[in-house]
Design brief:
Blueprint: H1 6-32, H2 40-86, H3 88-101, H4 110-117, H5 121-145, H6 149-157, H7 162-196, H8 205-214, H9 218-246
Helix pairs in contact: 2-3, 2-5, 2-7, 2-8, 2-9, 4-5, 5-7, 6-7, 7-9, 8-9
Length: about 250
């Protein structure tokens, strides 16, 4: 379980955490004794019985929406954040705009987004992407600002171009914090996913959970919640794999 096997260690940690959560859930269900809170075993049986017939389709749709929104936000926010962090003359004009827009709860614009773009996948992806974009942008910009100036001077003394400075000095220094921002944004994205899938849709885990709740199918509702949890877990594992390969110096 050394630092040379970070993914194995995290797998063990996930197993222990799952065991603790399941035990707490079980004892709480026994204590409450209400159909609204089934035992974890009942929810798991329901999950397995309807996974291929029902949940898998909703899981795929929700996963697609989260992944596309995160990728789109990252592709735009990371280069912009790296640039603003190193270019003060541009950052001084853009920062006030960020400070004004970032605190606004963008979810309030959901009805307007639906009105402008319809009820398909795009407005949901756009809404999720819009919210996580600012989280990634602010973290990346602050990380870029924090790159030690001596690293930049060392590159300049070797005759490096601006692009080479960004590629070999700024980007590697900021990458761990960018991945951290993606982990935070992933949690936000799944929370927003549930909200946007609760309105004007018939697909996705959020819709499935709310539909099961409205029909008092509580085992199915918790099966949907488990599906959303697995979605987050899978994406967190992907981020951990990326970090273990792109930031190997952190595990030395």
């Amino acid at each position: 379980m050394s630092r040379k096997n970070p993914l194995l260690k995290k797998s063990v940690d996930v197993f222990i955490a799952t065991t603790v959560i399941m035990a707490f859930w079980y004892f709480l269900a026994i204590y409450v004794k209400n159909n609204m809170l089934p035992t974890p075993w009942a929810a798991m049986r329901e999950f397995m019985s309807i996974f291929r017939s029902t949940i898998l389709q909703h899981f795929y749709i929700s996963g697609l929406r989260v992944v596309v929104s995160l990728l789109a936000s990252t592709v735009i926010a990371v280069p912009l954040g790296l640039f603003l962090g190193r270019e003060d003359k541009y950052d001084r004009y853009v920062s006030p705009v960020i400070y004004l827009l970032y605190p606004i709860p963008k979810i309030v614009f959901l009805p307007i987004v639906f009105l402008l773009f319809g009820l398909g996948n795009f407005p949901k992806i756009f809404m999720i992407g819009l919210i996580v974009f600012f989280q990634i942008l602010v973290t990346t910009r602050d990380a870029s600002k924090g790159v030690p100036v001596q690293n930049i001077y060392s590159m300049l003394s070797l005759g490096a171009s601006r692009f080479q400075i960004y590629r070999h000095a700024v980007w590697p220094a900021c990458l761990p914090k960018i991945l951290t921002s993606l982990r935070i944004s992933l949690g936000t994205a799944i929370a927003v996913l549930f909200f946007v899938e609760s309105f004007a849709t018939s697909e996705g885990l959020g819709y499935f959970i709310m539909d099961s709740w409205s029909t008092a199918s509580y085992s199915q509702m918790f099966a949907g919640i488990m599906g959303m949890s697995f979605l987050g877990l899978i994406l967190y594992i992907v981020l951990d794999i990326i970090e273990s390969r792109w930031c190997k110096w952190q595990y030395l």
